[in-house]
Amino acid sequence: MRRGVFWIFVAGLMFGIVSSVDAAENNSVSLEEFNKLKADYDQLKQEVQELKKTISQQNQSAPPSAAQPVAASQGASVEYVTADEFKKLKDQVKETRPGLSNFIVSGYGFTDYKESEGSPSTFSAGVNPVFLWKASDKLLFETELELSLEDGDTSTNLEFADAQYLLNDYVTGVAGKFITPFGTFLDRHPKWINKLPDKPYGYPDGSAMLVPESQIGAQIRGGIPLLRDSKVKYAMYVSNGPTVKTTATNAGELSFSNTNDNNHNKAFGGRVGFVPIPPLEVGYSWETSRVGANNTNFYRLDALVQGVDLSYVRDLDPIKGTVNFKAEQIWSHVDSVDYGTSGGAFQNDRWARYIQLSYRPDQVDLPFIKNLEPVFRFDQIHHPSAAPTFVNHDRYTWGLDYWISPNVVTKAAYEKDLQSKGGANNHTFLLEAAVGF
Amino acid sequence: MKRIHQIIVIVVALCAISIGLEYKNLWAEEQKSATSSSTAKKWVAPSKGGAQLWSENCMMCHNLRSPTTYSPKQWEIVVAHMRVQANLTAEEARKILKFLQSGH
What we know:
The complex is a heterodimer.
Chain A: H1 2-25, H2 31-61, E1 68-71, E2 79-81, H3 83-95, E3 103-116, E4 122-134, E5 139-150, E6 153-166, E7 172-179, E8 214-225, E9 231-239, E10 243-244, E11 254-255, E12 267-275, E13 280-290, E14 302-316, E15 321-334, E16 348-360, H4 367-370, E17 372-382, E18 393-405, E19 408-419, E20 426-436
Antiparallel strand pairs in A: 1-2, 3-4, 3-20, 4-5, 5-6, 6-7, 7-8, 8-9, 9-12, 10-11, 12-13, 13-14, 14-15, 15-16, 16-17, 17-18, 18-19, 19-20
Chain B: H1 2-36, H2 50-58, H3 72-85, H4 90-102
């Protein structure tokens, strides 16, 4: 089964490469296009001749002190350019230098304030610079660093670092550490994009997570247009995959912090998204992996993580604003085994889900009101009742954002977290300012 | 659990209604063009401009940033990055880039 999936992945990669070659070979022009291009070329040629003639006349009449010589050698004629022309030439030369014009620093910075019942209130801050380098028309390299303050120290994390090669119009190959193409939230987690100061349960945010933010491996991805406005988006990857925790306090939980594979099996996963009409997207994601370490009793443990997502973003005239609706559910299954804990072997199934709705009245003429965006989210995470030390959560979050500009936002949110298994219900107040750059 | 099922049913129903309305509008437009031109194509996506593609695709994830946010050269890099991130086709990316660069 695992080998079959591997060959399907290889076949997909080969298809992409072959399609790329086909696309290059079919890059022909019609007679009509050729004639048009020829006419354009003749016209340009004529214009260049006229320009040359005009410049030559100007050089003969203009005094040498009015411009700067750009080329002078023994026996060669001296040509003059104006200051503007000289600056333009300088810029053109600059643009050809690699590492300057094809390089950009993007990303986001943020500061948070959190006041939670029973815990000391705290400020935190961080910056996530994203470095993008377009090495050629087909090759792009991207990396993101995560720098944040944690317990008095600055923590550093390499969020992603990958090379992307455009195989053809519909297939891109990616290799390195990449954002996991699972659901829609992970791609949209940057603080200036996420509508609330924290992440929904199930996604990486300090608490138990069911999917990793990024993975190390290779993937192919792209979009294929269908009939009318509809479209299919896809991503398939192979990666080192997660490991299973076997300690007494969190036995059976998946860990995504490993950088190396702990066995000879790779994880396979992906997402297929369908866009029937542009404001709506539905998707299915999955990842299958062997999670036990070699030469241990847990070697044969397999895990399957699946997810469905729905996203609807639409500017609606009757309500003078934009509605943004998101819903996702994740199921995680790890084979049952006895970890030596008091509960013995247990059915290791977990799930997390959220729905989120926001509305921004951006068509209203009042400047302050049009920048406000109320948000509501309901999220849950449930663990097996026999799993050690896990608490189920049902959380309600009400938030209000104020958009200073499209990429600068301040957020305020109140959370009511209902916990099971003896956990105390929690009330939290959050503030955040985030800037995308 | 019952409440979640109710929410799912409501969401699916809203989606179905919205898809229905969207297709109804497209069908009406098609009928209109079919009467004015005998060569009107059926069930073929109309060629969208860069501005429309920019609005439709970028807004799905984040607020729309002004074309003047980056220089034309910088947009080349940003759009190349977003083409992969948002699973855009080459044609969509080309049109969006052209639109963003035309704002300068």
